[in-house]
């Protein structure tokens, strides 16, 4: 690994992510690890120049204040013990906070500012080759930013040892399966297998309302599909995924409960038959995009808005029904079309529709109509850890409302979500 590293150990802070991003902004690589990291685990991390013990509101576990393992204190590395309430420099904002962090990173630890995408890509290519050797890899290719960047990295590292599998689980946006096949098979020349599993997934999800249960069903069923495809291909030993750092963080740590289980983290089955290849697992979303640019992927692919692994399954809120799923798909297509036509496509980071599992009374053709409500969500963010709501012009919202209520079957209301993250998350489930 070419980058120096500052290690953040989670001793109950709710600002681990912020601190990690601030250090990376200085050009120094950093990772967050549990407070009880062992000596072998610590020794396995390359180029660690210093350790931050990041305490905070969750430091008391079962009535006892947690602390780092003895191996940390015996490592001989510079250590900075931080509790945000008791550390004036980090409690401050602006230059004072930045200076305190920079002083530890550069003056105390003597770390070099060598965190950049070219070095990251070179490291990952080497790591992938060392992990995989001459064996074959199966990639879950959704066509989204994360899996597309993983595909580019794997093609650079191992070439035709990679097989991409695109599973249509019936939870994709309008026209997306067709687009994935066109771009990856016909334009990029990838070895692509297309699997139509719509009925299989929707049958498994029938009547399941709990969001966590839906995510785990989708994650587990994905693995089963890949196992079946791997048996057809012979010699597949690895499964590549577009897992990124927010997926891992939001799925919970030893001191912080999960925000939500991501299907590719908490939803994987215990009897997984593959070794995982996850080269983006330590990158935030903006860093994934920067990696894609450095790999030469087209801007239309790199800057497309993100789409969750469970797809429209977490936007068809509650138990999924085919009619409501289709209403989500059609209303989302209208929203994306109108945002593109009105100059918001590249301005707003993510926008989509969701439909809750409830109906309200309305009027359709002069008669009472109990129909669904569509919720519009439009947010801006850098790293997907916090988000603000886009100020969409009211006239445009009126036009979108008119189109959705007239063109989408079974919908009589359109709502606009004004909630930032936090307190809300970007997705509803």
Summarize this, please?
This protein has 429 residues and is of the alpha/beta class. Helix content is 38%, strand content 21%. The chain has three domains: 5-108, Class I glutamine amidotransferase (GATase) domain (Rossmann fold, 3-Layer(aba) Sandwich), CATH 3.40.50.880; 117-302, HUPs (Rossmann fold); 315-416, GMP Synthetase, Chain A, domain 3 (2-Layer Sandwich), CATH 3.30.300.10.
What does this 3D model show about the protein?
- The chain is an alpha/beta fold.
- It folds into three domains: 5-108, Rossmann fold (3-Layer(aba) Sandwich); 117-302, Rossmann fold; 315-416, GMP Synthetase, Chain A, domain 3 (2-Layer Sandwich), CATH 3.30.300.
- Helix content is 38%, strand content 21%.
- The protein is built from 15 helices and 16 strands.
- The strands form four sheets. The chain has a five-stranded parallel beta sheet, with helices on both faces. Strands 12, 13, 14, 15 and 16 form a five-stranded mixed beta sheet that branches.
- Helix 7 packs across helix 12.
- The chain is globular and about 75 Å long.
- InterPro entries: Class_I_gatase-like (IPR029062), GATASE (IPR017926), GMP_synth_C (IPR001674), GMPS_ATP_PPase_dom (IPR025777), NAD/GMP_synthase (IPR022310), Rossmann-like_a/b/a_fold (IPR014729).
- It holds the Pfam family GATase.
- It comes from Wansuia hejianensis.
